[in-house]
Amino acid sequence: MAPRCLFFSLIFIALFLSALARNTKEKCVYTFYVKTGSVLKGGTDAIISVTISDANGQSVEIADLESWGLMEKNHDYFERDNVDIFSGRGPCIEAPLCRLNLTSDGSGAHHGWFCDYLEVTSTGPHRSCSQTAFYVDQWLATDAPPFQLTTILDGCDDWIKGHEASRHTSRGKLVVSGSKGSASL
């Protein structure tokens, strides 16, 4: 009787570990809508990188967002008053996505960039769709205020505490606002 019990215990452990290993390899789909501002010289030729994170500190980093671009061939991304669409697969992290690190490398003839907003949608196997809007509303430039090539919008603490600055709206979207001070949709 003992060998049979041991056999089934080993099978159970093996199945549990294989299921655990499979879950760590799951990939989620992330789709970004990025709106460049309508201000003069708001577009850029720089390389834009994005890191999105959840409240647990897990993150997905895209070193060159343009490499995930879905627009037509030879499209000029991050140009004035355009909405560009990007999509790719990355490791699954928890919803909501509440932290954004948006960075320009400052390269190219037109290095400065004014980002209005970035909206990200994520979904994956056995997961509901999650959507977050980050209202950046600032320059990523060394020659325009706030004279930085990186901005970080973090609504994770407010989300955890249930405060107003970041919340789910009636449409189920987490909203994180930067320089405007509060979030609403």
TrEMBL record:
Family annotation (PROSITE patterns): PLAT
InterPro entries per the UniProt record, alphabetical: Embryo-specific_ATS3 (IPR010417), PLAT/LH2_dom (IPR001024), PLAT/LH2_dom_sf (IPR036392)
Signal peptide per UniProt: 1-21
Keyword terms: Signal
SUPFAM superfamilies found in the cross-reference section: Lipase/lipooxygenase domain (PLAT/LH2 domain)
Coiled coil: none
Segments forming domain PLAT: 28-154
Gene3D superfamilies: PLAT/LH2 domain
Name of this protein: PLAT domain-containing protein 3-like
Species assigned in the record: Cucurbita maxima (Pumpkin)
Gene, per the UniProt record: LOC111490681
